[in-house]
Amino acid sequence: MSSQFRELLKKVGSGQHTKENLTRTEAAQATGMMLMGEATAAQIGAFMIAHRIKRITPEELAGMLDAYDELSPHIYPSPEEKTPFVFGIPYDGRSRTAPIFPLTALILSCAGVPAIMHGGDSMPTKYGIPLIELWQGLGLDFSVLAIEQVQELYNRTGLGFIYTPRHFPLADGLTPYRDQIGKRPPIATLELIWSPYVGNFHLVSGYVHPPTEALFRETLKLRKPTIAFTFVKGLEGSCDIRLSQTTIVAISQPQTSEGFEYLKLHPQDYGMEGKDHPLDSTSDLFLAMDAVIEGKASPLKQASIWNGGFYLWRYGICPDFSSGLEIAENLLNSGKVAQKRAEIRATLDDIINHNHH
């Protein structure tokens, strides 16, 4: 097997003039062999760094996603069959600015918008606070669920979380390489647009560099040309839109010749400009998040309304951004978001206890 992998490695790992791109099939094959541990450790590390230096093509990324789809766990449509948002948020987490995303997800959940997430534990190269830990800090621990229970939670609450160490250990097995090579490999790009959901979904991904956003679009054209997408040049590469400056967002627009358009979200146009709150300690962060959920004053409240309003509008809950902001604010102030969190917590407990007896 490793001699077969060596041929693929030679293609991406040759010099400036002799390197070749992999076909979609070859990229799928190489990724499958890495996930299954059929390539040696030396080969996997070499492939990751060579691929990073060469730069990944849309065909290669499509092939890598094909391999993930084949080997990963899945979440299936709930009885309501509503189209979920699938969020791609960097697995290596946040280290400078306070994350808003779980608050956005709870606001969406209140409005009946399903959301699917995925991620693991604290991860190189950034070792920021990962998504799973944010939810745990809010009293919702998705990491304890078996994959069947993830599906049950999704069916009952519209929230789904694929926790890679438990649900997709093959992918988690590639994590140590990030530390050893000291760089994010192309798999870190794949994670932003990978979806464990089987069915029609709306993909939301964060990005930092403009070429990444073009790569996302080209890859989707090859794999899922009809799905809706929202690609956000968000805080630290996340899906969180900024209060401190304009955020650029690429959204799918099937009726245009390009198939997409750029939005520029200016907080000052909506009287929302402010500071992006720094990430100080996790205990302070959880207190600030709790206050938002409980409808109290919080340094994160404005950012939660700003983000919640945008995604409510983007999903089609309301006709324009301004009414999205109003709905988000009302859901927080009326106590509905607090109620929603309590419901999700009760459902989690029920699923865990029910399956233990």
From TrEMBL:
GO terms for cellular component: cytosol. The lineage of its organism: Bacteria, Bacillati, Cyanobacteriota, Cyanophyceae, Oscillatoriophycideae. It comes from Gloeothece citriformis (strain PCC 7424). GO terms for molecular function: anthranilate phosphoribosyltransferase activity. Gene3D superfamilies: Nucleoside phosphorylase/phosphoribosyltransferase catalytic domain, Transferase, Pyrimidine Nucleoside Phosphorylase, Chain C. Residues 103-336 form the Glycosyl transferase family domain. Transmembrane segments: none annotated. NCBIfam families: PRK07394.1. It holds the Pfam family Glycos_trans_3N. GO terms for biological process: L-tryptophan biosynthetic process. Keywords: Amino-acid biosynthesis, Aromatic amino acid biosynthesis, Glycosyltransferase, Transferase. PANTHER family: ANTHRANILATE PHOSPHORIBOSYLTRANSFERASE, SLL1634 PROTEIN. This is Glycosyl transferase, family 3-like protein. The keyword Oxidoreductase does not apply. Residues 6-70 form the Glycosyl transferase family 3 N-terminal domain.
